[in-house]
C-alpha cells in the first residue's frame, strides 16, 4: 500500500489562510514547477501544491538540473511546488524567506545547523541539503497579482555526489526515521503562512532569522564576475552585501551567483 501523503490534512491546515488549496501527488513528472507554470500560462491560477515522487527533469536556479533521489521503498527526496497568486510590494528576498521557513520547519532548534546559503540553498556543514526555485507567471485576467511558483527539493536519503559541484547532505543523517510525506506535512502549513506574511510585509520579518542561519556571513566569497570580497550578510531587502577592495557591493540574485572559498579554520 502506498504511503499516505496527508492531502486532506494539509489542505485543512492551510484553509484559514489560503482557501481552496488543491493538493496533488503524482508518481512521476518532468518537473512540478514546470507543470504549474504551464497551467498558469493556460490561465489556471488556482492555489496548488503539486508533489512528485519522482522528477525526471527537475530544475534549479539558472537552469541547473535537480533530479529526485530514488529508493526502492520510499522516495529518497522530497520534491514539490507550491503555486498561488501573490502581489507583494517587493519581491526581493522571497527565496530567502522561503529558506527560513523550510529550515525552521526541518530544524526548529537549529541543532542540526541547517544554514542558508544566499540566495536559495539549504546547507549542512557546507553540503547541500536542498534548493529553492522561485518563478512567476503573468496573470491572464489583467489583475495586478502574479502567479507565484515555489519549487523545493530536499534530500532525505543518501545521494551520490558524482558530478555535483557541492557535496550533498541528507536529512536521515540526523533524522533516520524521516519520510517524504511526513516532511511535507511539517513544511507546507508554515510555508504558506510565511509566504503570505512576505506578501504583506516583505523580507523585513525574516531578516534576523536569516542572519541566524547565514552560511556566508564573514566568509570570503567570489562573485561570478571574478570579484573577491568578504560577505557582510544581507540587507533588509534580501540583497547580498560583499565588502570588496573597491568598497561595499550590493548584489541581487539576478546579477551574480556566489560560491564561498574553503573555510580557513
**Rg over alpha carbons:** 18 Å
Q: What share of residues is helical?
A: 10-25%
Distance between the termini: 49 Å
- State the order of secondary-structure elements, H for helix, E for strand: HEHEEHEEEEHHEEEEE
Shape: globular
Mean pLDDT across residues:
88
**Count of separate DSSP helical elements:** 5
Number of strands: 12
Q: Let me know the largest β-sheet.
A: 7 strands, mixed
Class derived from helix and strand content = alpha+beta
Strand order of the largest sheet: 1-2-3-7-6-5-4
Query: Low-confidence parts, pLDDT < 50 over ≥5 residues?
Result: none
Q: Tell me the fraction of residues in β-strands, as a range.
A: 25-35%
Secondary-structure map:
Elements: H1 7-14, E1 22-26, H2 32-41, E2 48-52, E3 77-86, H3 94-106, E4 114-117, E5 121-124, E6 127-137, E7 146-155, H4 180-201, H5 207-211, E8 220-223, E9 228-234, E10 240-244, E11 247-251, E12 258-260
Helix pairs in contact: 1-4, 3-4
Amino acid at each position: 500500500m502506498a504511503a499516505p501523503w496527508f492531502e486532506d490534512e494539509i489542505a485543512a491546515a492551510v484553509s484559514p489562510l489560503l482557501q481552496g488549496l488543491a493538493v496533488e501527488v503524482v508518481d512521476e513528472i518532468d518537473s512540478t514547477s514546470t507543470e504549474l507554470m504551464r497551467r498558469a500560462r493556460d490561465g489556471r491560477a488556482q492555489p496548488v501544491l503539486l508533489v512528485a515522487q519522482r522528477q525526471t527533469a527537475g530544475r534549479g536556479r539558472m537552469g541547473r538540473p535537480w533530479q529526485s533521489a530514488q529508493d526502492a521503498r520510499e522516495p529518497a527526496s522530497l520534491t514539490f511546488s507550491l503555486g498561488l497568486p501573490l502581489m507583494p510590494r517587493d519581491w526581493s528576498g522571497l527565496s530567502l524567506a522561503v529558506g527560513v521557513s523550510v529550515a525552521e520547519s526541518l530544524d526548529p532548534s537549529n541543532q542540526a545547523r541547517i544554514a542558508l546559503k544566499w540566495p536559495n540553498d539549504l546547507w549542512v556543514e557546507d553540503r547541500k541539503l536542498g534548493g529553492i526555485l522561485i518563478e512567476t507567471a503573468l496573470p491572464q485576467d489583467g489583475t495586478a497579482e502574479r502567479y507565484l511558483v515555489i519549487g523545493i527539493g530536499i534530500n532525505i536519503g543518501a545521494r551520490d555526489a558524482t558530478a555535483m559541484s557541492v557535496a550533498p547532505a541528507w536529512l536521515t543523517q540526523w533524522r533516520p526515521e524521516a519520510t517524504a510525506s511526513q516532511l511535507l506535512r511539517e513544511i507546507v502549513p508554515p510555508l504558506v503562512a510565511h509566504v503570505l506574511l512576505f506578501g504583506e510585509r516583505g523580507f523585513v520579518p525574516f531578516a534576523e532569522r536569516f542572519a541566524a542561519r547565514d552560511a556566508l556571513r564573514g566568509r570570503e566569497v567570489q562573485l561570478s564576475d571574478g570579484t573577491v570580497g568578504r560577505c557582510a550578510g544581507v540587507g533588509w531587502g534580501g540583497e547580498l552585501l560583499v565588502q570588496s577592495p573597491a568598497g561595499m557591493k550590493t548584489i541581487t540574485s539576478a546579477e551574480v551567483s556566489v560560491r564561498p572559498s574553503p573555510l580557513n579554520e
